[in-house]
């Protein structure tokens, strides 16, 4: 028996000729926020559906609270799907009452912005309030494990900060959290990351661990257009950033052979996004 | 001449979608409009290309046939091939089909090997590059792309921005909307929208420099100052006075600047 709330052991799932998830192993412990980071189509949602027991893996094993997923384990999970999982033709109050009855708990209090919209239909609410209601519904039965599929997609920086405060609050209270995002800059909110590219986990660990040893060469061009063309023609990954060109995961010497001696070159720490590019390319 | 908005307000279904927005979209440059869902990005795009009319203010734009517009997630025909998509745009603009321009764009986007594949079978990144190629094909005076990078992997997003820079390099005035704040660095001019109003505008650098007051890092949430969580620590903002004791001063990043501006606006309203 493992001490993990959730664990997958080399799970894979194929849809016709598309290997959506390819041998991914992860674990989530109590009080921990694990971020599953990847683009649309990287396999995040398929992976989550397997973890919840909604989709059977072709290969590998899913363990929830030390056992295979069942309806009993489902009771201990709070799941917020991308669609938020609310009934649009019910009011906020009715949605939360319904969820509470399913789990056999008291419905939660509506506070803050939600207090004044309890009797409004979900369909009539702005997305921000809908998302709050979805969070409240997912958290209302005090789950041990929270699974959040892109909870902050389309939310502005301030709204994101608020939602992350809720997520951190749940983790601080002892819940394990698995959260997916395609916003690289949210990675810092997670204790550990799993970077997913084309169905495979290309890196795992803390932000520090993933960034260790990853460098990006920053070029200060003399003639931006000419240097950009020369570097791209040579097959380098080039990111124009402000007045510089950034080339993740390449050596200074190899860049020097292309751009000549007049161009300024500095080796700098990669951003997580740049590290992800290098990892996805080399995997 | 530069395109854009002077004090534009647009009402949709009795609600104000965007309010008093100024916007400059200059030939040869890429302007990014950044905002959350519902911030007014699509209204801005549709108004700029002439699909919506402002209730107040002035819209400056080229004549309709000199504008390319790629709406969000809808710019390509999925049951046509890459070549057919480009040919369709060429015909719509009464240009020669399969011209040098066609091959140049296939080369530029790296879509050459996929020329005969259906757009619907392409990856999200490739499909968006096709959408940009379609927008570039007629060498428009202005091109407007609504969320061309949403949901794409970092490499594909970078490639889309590079194509936009290339379009600007051909003299086109380019406007792209995005939800990713960290894409501000890729544009020459940035407008951050919040609830239909401009929260910040300028270059990424000038927006960072516009931060008012001091920003600190604290291990606990301070009671006396506005704060937001960044991982296991808090950012503490002291707009006027000194930082609370125990907070270490840090340089704000774009995310901090925008959060602080949104908090200030929320406080003022």
Structure description:
The complex is a heterodimer of chains A (283) and B (269). Chain A folds into 2 domains: 6-208, 3-Layer(aba) Sandwich (Rossmann fold); 213-282, 2-Layer Sandwich (Alpha-Beta Plaits). Chain A contains 9 helices and 13 strands. Chain A has helices at 44-52, 71-75, 92-103, 127-139, 157-172, 207-211, 224-233, 252-259, 272-282; strands at residues 6-15, 18-28, 33-37, 59-64, 77-80, 145-149, 176-181, 192-197, 200-205, 215-220, 239-241, 244-248, 264-269. In chain A, the strands form 3 sheets. A 6-stranded mixed β-sheet of chain A has the order 5-6-7-3-8-9, sandwiched between helices. A 4-stranded antiparallel β-sheet of chain A has the order 11-12-10-13. In chain A, a hairpin with a 2-residue loop joins strand 8 (192-197) and strand 9 (200-205). The longest helix of chain A has 16 residues, at 157-172. In chain B, helix 5 (154-169) links the parallel strand 6 (142-145) and strand 7 (173-178). The mean pLDDT of chain B is 92. By secondary structure, chain B is an alpha/beta fold. Chain B starts with a strand and ends with a helix. A 6-stranded mixed β-sheet of chain B has the order 5-6-7-3-8-9, with helices on both faces. Chain B contains 7 helices and 13 strands. Classes of the chains: A alpha/beta (283), B alpha/beta (269). The interface between A and B is large, with 41 and 39 residues.
């Amino acid at each position: 028996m493992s001490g993990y709330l959730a664990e997958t052991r080399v799970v894979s799932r194929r849809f016709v000729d598309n290997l959506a998830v390819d041998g991914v192993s992860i674990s989530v412990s109590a009080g921990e926020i694990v971020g599953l980071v990847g683009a649309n189509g990287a396999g995040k949602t398929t992976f989550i559906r397997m973890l919840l027991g909604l989709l059977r893996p072709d290969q590998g094993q899913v363990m929830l609270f030390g056992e295979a997923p069942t309806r009993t384990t489902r009771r201990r999970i709070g799941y917020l799907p991308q669609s938020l999982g609310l009934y649009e033709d019910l009011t906020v109050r009715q949605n939360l009452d319904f969820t509470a009855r399913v789990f056999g708990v008291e419905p939660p209090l509506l506070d803050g912005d939600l207090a004044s919209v309890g009797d409004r239909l979900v369909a009539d609410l702005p997305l921000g309030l809908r998302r709050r209601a979805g969070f409240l519904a997912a958290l209302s039965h005090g789950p041990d494990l929270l699974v959040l599929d892109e909870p902050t997609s389309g939310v502005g920086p301030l709204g994101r900060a608020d939602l992350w405060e809720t997520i951190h609050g749940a983790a601080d209270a002892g819940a394990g959290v698995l959260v997916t995002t395609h916003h690289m800059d949210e990675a810092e909110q997670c204790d550990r990351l799993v970077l997913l590219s084309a169905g495979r986990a290309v890196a795992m660990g803390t932000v520090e661990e993933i960034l260790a040893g990853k460098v990006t060469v920053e070029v200060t061009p003399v003639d931006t257009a000419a240097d950009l063309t020369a570097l791209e023609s040579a097959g380098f990954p080039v990111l124009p950033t402000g007045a510089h060109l950034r080339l993740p995961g390449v050596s200074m010497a190899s860049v020097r052979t292309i751009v000549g001696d007049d161009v300024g070159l500095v080796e700098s720490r990669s951003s997580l996004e740049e590290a992800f590019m290098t990892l996805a390319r080399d995997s | 001449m530069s395109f854009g908005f002077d004090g534009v307000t647009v009402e949709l279904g009795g609600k104000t979608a965007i309010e008093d927005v100024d916007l400059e979209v200059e030939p040869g440059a890429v302007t990014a409009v950044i905002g959350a869902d519902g911030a007014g990005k699509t209204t801005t795009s549709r108004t700029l290309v002439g699909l919506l009319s402002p209730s107040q203010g002035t819209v400056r734009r080229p004549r309709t046939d000199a504008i390319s517009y790629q709406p969000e997630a809808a710019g390509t025909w999925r049951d046509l091939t890459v070549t057919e998509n480009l040919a369709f745009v060429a015909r719509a603009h009464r240009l020669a089909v399969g011209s040098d321009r066609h091959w140049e764009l296939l080369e530029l986007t790296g879509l050459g090997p996929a020329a005969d594949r259906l757009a619907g079978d392409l990856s999200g990144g490739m499909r968006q590059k096709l959408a940009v190629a379609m927008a570039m094909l007629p060498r428009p005076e202005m091109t407007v792309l609504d969320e061309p990078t949403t949901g794409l992997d970092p490499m594909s997003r970078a490639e889309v921005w590079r194509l936009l820079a290339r379009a600007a390099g051909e003299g086109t005035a380019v406007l792209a909307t995005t939800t990713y704040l960290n894409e501000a660095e890729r544009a020459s001019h940035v407008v951050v929208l919040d609830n239909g109003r401009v929260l910040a505008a300028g270059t990424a650098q000038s927006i960072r420099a516009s931060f008012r007051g001091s920003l600190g890092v604290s291990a606990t949430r301070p009671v006396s100052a506005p704060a937001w969580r960044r991982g296991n620590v808090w950012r503490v903002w002291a707009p006027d006075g000194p930082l609370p004791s125990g907070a270490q001063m840090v340089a704000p990043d774009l995310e901090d600047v925008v959060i602080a501006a949104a908090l200030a606006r929320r406080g003022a309203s």
